[in-house]
User: Fold this.
Amino acid sequence: MPNRINKAVISEYQRRLGSSPDFVAVDTVGLSVAQFTDLRRLARDKGVQVLVVKTSLACVALQDAVQPDALRGVLAGSTALIFGGEGLPVAARLVADYGKKTGKLAVRGGLFEKKILTAGEVAKFKDIPDRRTLLAQVLSAVTAPLTGVLGLTQNLLSSPAALAEALAKKQENSAA
Assistant:
C-alpha cells in the first residue's frame, strides 16, 4: 500500500502524462547534470516534457494504460519519460538527435496508444514529419490537380484570343 508521498507522486505522474500517455523512455545513466539540463532545455523549446520517474510508481500510475508487468522492461533503472508536444514523433526525433550529439542517451522503448514499443519501433517514429509538414503535404496533394485544371482552362481560354490576334496581324501584314 503506497504511503501519502507515493500517492502524491503517482497522481503527479498521472496528471503530467494526461489522458494520452504516449512517451519515449530513455536511459539517463551516463548523462551529466549539464547534459541533462541541455536535454530539458531542448525539449522545452520543442514543447516536449522530460520527466524523471521512479519506475515502480510510474508502473502504478500507468496501470490504466497498460499492464504494469509489461512496462517493467521499458521502465527499468534510471529512466526519463519524454512526452507531449505534437506527439511521439517529436519526442522520438528529439531523443535521436540528442543521442547522436552526446552518444549517451539510449532509448529503452516507449508507449503509443496503449501499446509498448521497442527501441527500434520508437526509432521509426522519428521519420514521421511534424504536423505542419504533414498538413502542407496534404494541402499540396489536394491542390495539385486543381492547379493543373486551372492551367488547362487558362490555356483553352487564351488560345482563341492568341489565334485571333495572330490572324489579325497576318491580315494586317498581307494588306500592307
Notes: The two ends are 107 Å apart (CA to CA). The beta strands are 23-27, 48-53, 79-84, 106-112, 115-117. The mean pLDDT is 80.
